[in-house]
Amino acid sequence: MKKLFLIPWMLLTTLAVTTACGEPHPSSNEPEQTRPEDDGNDEEGGNVNGADGRYLVLYCSRTGNTERMARTIQSTLDCEMAEVEPAVPYDTDYNAMLDRAQTELEAIAQGDFPAITTSVESFDNYDIIFVGYPIWFGHMASPMQAFLHDHAALLAGKRIALFASSGSSGIGTSERDAAALVPEALFEESLLLTSGSLGSMATRIPAWLEELGAGREEH
Ligand SMILES: Cc1cc2nc3c(=O)[nH]c(=O)nc-3n(C[C@H](O)[C@H](O)[C@H](O)COP(=O)(O)O)c2cc1C
After folding, report:
1. Is the whole model's pTM more than 0.85, yes or no?
2. Mean pLDDT, consecutive 10-residue segments, the chain of 219 residues?
3. 60 lines ligand 1 (CB under 6 A)
4. Ligand 1 atom closest to the CA of 194, numbered from 1
5. By CB distance 3.0 to 4.6 Å, which of 53, 57, 64, 182 could disulfide with 81?
6. Is 28 exposed, middle or buried (0-12, 13-18, 19+ CB in 10 A)?
């Protein structure tokens, strides 16, 4: 993986990100206290058997930032949501976590994807699938890359809206990751929130959903 890329990001975010990622719950961008299993919409780390609403929110998140974005989308649309989880949980030690993430991304570049515990049987009835992840070394976090790889055939022809959180990096490289993993999907306008803009989530996300034409589901 590109160590050169890592250096500017590390310099920019040494204080903020080290604190955030060194702890399960960062102090600066405190995740919600509720966990995915607390609501009826989430099927964490298991099978989603398919499509009883128009939208599905899928996310992976280690320190809670992307999860907060996912929950805001889910509650705005009142739709289904599921967490994409690695088969082996990430180490809470920050440096061990960085090493593993880097190793996984290098393996993905060679076509070797890490195991995950989440699968979806069918996307047929969903209008839009929201796919959220943190940016890792400029790329889509490895569990979500594995999910897209595993479900590429089922996602062909589907509308996908990517959303991501990062310390400061852009979303462009991860958009290219997604396009390579699911070349036959139809990608909508993506949404990135950085550590500087996560605070405006409550306005940015509804505005983005409106641009996509996504509205609250009727149940
Ligand atoms: C392994 C790893 C690599 C990261 N690489 C980057 C990066 O390249 N650029 C960046 O801006 N932030 C990077 N970050 C910071 C995360 O993208 C950021 O904190 C994100 O909001 C975390 O989302 P989460 O709370 O959902 O896990 C990295 C974090 C980790 C753990």
Report:
1. no
2. 41 33 28 34 48 85 98 96 97 95 98 97 95 98 98 98 98 98 98 98 97 87
3. no
4. 21
5. 57
6. middle
